[in-house]
Amino acid sequence: MIGFTHTHTGIPFGRGGIPFEHDEIVADSIKGYIDVFVRLVADCAILADMRLEKCSASFGKGEVKGISFVRDYFMKNGTPQTNPPRTSPDIEGPTHEADYDLPVLFIKNESGTPKGAILGFACHADCVSGDKLTGDYVSILSKELKKTYGEDFVTVFLLGCCGNINHFDVSKESDAPDHYVKMGKKLAGEAIKTVSFAKEISADKLNASLEYIDIPRLQISNEEIEKAKYYIATVKEKKGVKLAADGTAPDQYNLAMSKRLMNFLATTPEVFTVPLQCIQIGEFTIYGFNSEIFAEFGKIVKESDGTGINLVATLCNDAFGYVPTKDMFYDTIYESRPGSSQLQKDAGYIMADKLISMKK
Question: Which residue of 10, 71, 187, 223 has the fewest CB atoms within a 10 Å radius of its CB?
Fold first, then answer.
């Protein structure tokens, strides 16, 4: 499984909004980086195989609140909105509840030496703004666990279902610049506490299945297409304007989304072939969604699993935009706008059902 952490300030693809293939210097440096990166990934797989040793695994599930928040809110006008203005008196409350689970599979060898952990949490790793390159809260989590379990301790982080979850607390004017550090440390602290009461799991099975299913493209109405054409024809693009779904520069935002819609229709197939993956390590199961899945679908899978010994991840193996719940398809919801969302409206339910059926 290839699981993306979705760090916004990670590998510098197209920094500053310029696709790297349009900048020779950036293109050369990134191609060089990719070459090294691919080799390192291959080395990791080879070395892991060479260093196999007998180990045991224990599982525990912690809970972390106060660092992640649903980013879609009902407003007083009855319409939900993504990332509304902070502290706005028009905010009624979140459309859903965040997923606070922190599942941890802890691995140690026969002599009791901690070797690593597989863990996940549902929150966009977009806590650092600007051009600073960082692994965001995920890298802090890894560093903190090394402080406790040793420099050779390996943290395998899988991003939980967080298509509608980020770190913005709209009840506050702003977040501290080091919010991502606090997040990583809080997650590490809870992970360490969770390991202390984790229970050893049986190792009677090891299964991995990767399957592909076809899901039609999101249907776009003629009205939406005509509206997009109107914005493109009548709104003059301004450079340097922040594009956000929070009501800032609405014409520029609508223009950008209109261009995105038309490009979506011109460049995407009518049917997408999407991967789904299920990995079983003894009693522990990893369910891997593709795309940016709303937290509700992760909860559906966990509830259907019934064991509580699992981790549900998003952005595994491929991505086809956001996958919202059917009740969140509004113009004011960023994740459901055509282009942001590429799959038909019931895609999340189809994928959840398929994942549940894949467990052996």
Answer: 223
**130 part of a folded domain:** yes
Number of domains in the chain: 2
**114-158: pLDDT as tens digits:** 999 999 999 999 998 777 788 999 999 999 999 999 999 999 999
Question: Which amino acid makes up residue 240?
Answer: G
Residue 54 lies in a domain: yes
Confidence (pLDDT) at 8:
81
Tell which of 316, 334, 354 closes a domain.
316
Residues 233 and 292 in one domain: no
Domain that holds residue 256: 222-267
Question: What are 70's two structure tokens?
Answer: 């649903």
Mean pLDDT score across all residues of the chain: 91
**Average pLDDT of span 179-191:** 97
CA 73 to CA 234: how far, in whole Å? 30
The 8-class DSSP code of residue 191 comes to H
Mean pLDDT score, 70-87: 94
Q: In whole angstroms, give the CA distance from residue 126 to residue 21.
A: 24
Query: Which residues, other chains included, contact 15 with Cβ-Cβ below 8 Å and sequence gap of 6+?
Result: 26, 131
Tokens of 118: 């597989």
Spatial neighbors of 158 by CB under 8 A, at least 6 apart, are 1, 3, 118, 119, 120, 286, 288, 311, 313, 316
The H-or-E segment that residue 179 falls in is helix 179-196
